[in-house]
Amino acid sequence: MEYEAVIGLEVHAELKTGSKAFCNCTTAFGGEPNTHVCPICLGLPGVLPKINRKVVEFGLKAALALNCQVASFCKFDRKNYYYPDLPKNYQISQYDLPLARHGFLEIEVNGEKKKIGIARVHMEEDAGKLIHVDGSGGGYTLVDYNRAGVPLLEIVSEPDLRSPAEARAYMEQLKAVLEYTEVSDCKMQEGSLRCDANVSVRPLGSREFGTKTEVKNMNSFRALQRALEYEIERQIAILESGGRVVQETRGWDESRGVTVSMRSKEEAHDYRYFPEPDLVPLVIDQEWIEKVRRELPELPNSRRERLIRDYGLPPYDAGVITSSKALADYFDRAVALFPDAKQVSNWLMGDFLRLLNASGLEPDASPVKPEGLAELLKLQQEGTISIKIAKQVFEEMFATGKGARQIVEEKGLVQISDAGELAAIVEKVLAEHPQVVADYRGGKDKALGFLVGQVMKATRGKANPALVNQLLKERL
Amino acid sequence: MELYYLTAHELGDLLQRKEVSAREVAESFLERLETVDVKVRAYLTVTPEKALEQAARVDAARARGENLSPLAGVPMALKDNLCTEGVRTTCASKMLAEWVPPYSAFVVRRLEAEGAVMLGKLNMDEFAMGSSNENSRFYPVHNPWDLERVPGGSSGGATAAVAAGEACYALGSDTGGSIRQPASFCGVVGMKPTYGRVSRFGLVAFASSLDQIGPITRDVTDCALVLQAIAGHDPYDSTSANLPVPDYRAVLTGEIRGLKIGIPKEYFPEGMEGEVARIVKRAIGRLSDLGAICEEVSLPHTEYALPAYYLVAPAEASSNLARYDGVGFGLRVEGNDIIDMYMRTRSEGFGAEVKRRIMLGTYALSSGYYDAYYLKALKVRTLIRRDFEQAFKRFDVLATPTSPTVAFRLGEKAGDPLAMYLSDLFTIPVNMAGLPAISIPCGFSQGLPVGLQLIGKPFDEETLLRVAYAFEQNTDYHRRRPELGV
Ligand SMILES: [Zn+2]
After folding, report:
1. Are A227 and A259 in contact (CB under 8 A)?
2. Taking the model in full, what pTM does it have?
3. Residues A427 and A313 reside in one and the same domain
4. For A141, which residue in chain B has the nearest alpha carbon?
5. Do residues B264 and B401 make contact, with C-beta atoms less than 8 angstroms apart?
6. Predicted ipTM beyond 0.90
7. End of a domain among A265, A290, A315?
8. pLDDT one-digit tens code per residue, A79-115
């Protein structure tokens, strides 16, 4: 039998507001354990939360960018459960009246566009971090509350995803939207973007949902795709062998490449949600919503369309360039200075991304700024340096942060386009290789390449290759 | 009269005229406290050094000719659920027996700014849960009017201290009557302001939607003075109202002619102490003698207030008290694993009444029961609020007994939670509706004080003070002091 997967994603994105959701502590990543804390985020007796307006504003931005309907009235609720990383043993979250609902995100897989529904977007606070220390007698656990109270946005999709590839595309697109709106850093490794998946399978064509499992602990796009592929296969195998899928929470084990049962439905928490009495309900007026909407930046999909339309970039190139806001911003700045968009995109997708990835940097942290890249491309275009030298200079720029022209001058890399100067070298090469000259004259065309190479070698790559070709042919 | 038995405004006048120094006043109270607290047991922590240091600062400021608040140099004490930086704040619980807050409550900072002199922290029912102070995990408080009797609760240490001359005034907290009922039992003035009038920041939460901090004083003028000092908006309490604070002393005119006072008939039920009902009715008669128009009114949903309260308050408490788990602060009893540690810590840290309410609340919020209990209670709460809204269309103030009885004997109701809960029958609806109310001494039944409760419109503490002051001007119950045999 053929099966189809039904997947919904629950994504948690840390909002990059300067301070925490309900107190004035910094949200900065890192920091000595328990230094970004105060009585409020430590949940000491007597404290009260105070909503940070920025959290609502960032939530609004994301919700509008995800085409959601924003609630004019929403409230916070307490989600009660005991865990040592949760100072109050309840999390301030939103339950039945979330910030926004009924949105969608458009994804593209294998050239096909698809709208994925967003069920809800709500605000909540993060918990602290537990650090387990092994030791004799079972070890112990330390708690770091620096992350406790950092604002999160939970974005829940409808079960509209039908394959791991779609889930990955959704996640990548969502990341791009959150980056473009500048509400989150979206660093999966640092945990500022996290995702859980609800997965079930059903016979193709069936309208009913199968029993779902919830998969957790997927810390990269690759992990998400692999975990879903595994889980779907696992569920199909159970059904094929006449078994039944058990509703449970499963964790992805990256090293073993499997999902493992964490807890069953029976062990599921009763969170005893109730309205947070320490916060008043939020009334979000239409004016505020419209202001945020007006100030929304260009979003990834429309930017991609713009690159295709205005610069004639191939859709693939436009997709790669706009997948990251920083890269697209870089592209725009470089093209403004060096208008050959395809050339710029080739450089970005080639050497630029290769060196960035190798050094683990984001585009905006690149040692080569758009001005530097444009300068290099101009040098190449006006014939001052060859393409080969340009690649060499780019690596040098990346490593040292120096300007293209400076490197070219310091290293004497200016292309030799003086026919007189080159003619002497050509003469010398011909004199040194009489046999090759004879071969060429005897009809071996390939011998010309060897001679060009020798001239380039003698000039350490600086000779203008077209001119060398021309001179050699004249002399032969 | 001894310094320790004067009111704040009387002491303020003496201090202002430099007839006494703040140091002398503080010493008088500290001495008194040392003599009588062995009997009353109102204090959990006494802070004499802090008091004398604060008094010295006030004296120095006065010597420099600074313009000081009328409360400057007046000794006070705080219910032990108000956080005080550097001074342990126990909530009369084993859970927090050693806990020293790193910050002070909003109201504490306000009083410090006024030049208040803090004598110490006052006994209470554990986490403010109780009506007799017998739920203190340290020791029960004794009523200064009869040491065999309870002072009421949960702010019983606070009202007993003010009555016994161990503090000129105190701050308490009131979730279902915890200021007014003990004020009535101890013959002092106790006010629960409108929900949102006073910031709750730094008040250790019992039930967040009901808790409110208020003054406990020896007369109505003092109540106005202290309310003036602590009322107002606090951006760190989202539920505190951003409204201007009127001049409360300006309304103390003694004039109440033409004011309409409603007498809710449900507040004189069969089975309440006849003598208490008679004394309260006589007090209301006094108000009509002064020109007020007193008429009966009905608040039909009154009987549902108590059961609804015992769902809402425990539900919130079950969540508010979840943080006492032995992880970050307070008591920790080591266990085999984290769950075991939680269980041992909470079993030992909390007393029976706190556990009872946590269980009630947890149950009321549980999936499958939420709609039938918690949600239903919220609906009842709305009905109770509407009852009052209706009544306040016709009346400026409502007058009732504060409690159905006078102070009962220690141990008399300790084994019967329901009988104990009934002690707050007339105070609980006020918290459910978020209204302001005051209890003032209005007579004595067999030597024990009886309280008159006045209930006002939201944020209309002024009218309460006005009526209370007019009554006080024409009676002398507020001037009586217990014998205490010393
Ligand atoms: Zn903080």
Report:
1. yes
2. 0.89
3. no
4. B338
5. no
6. yes
7. A290
8. 999 999 999 999 999 999 999 999 999 998 888 889 9
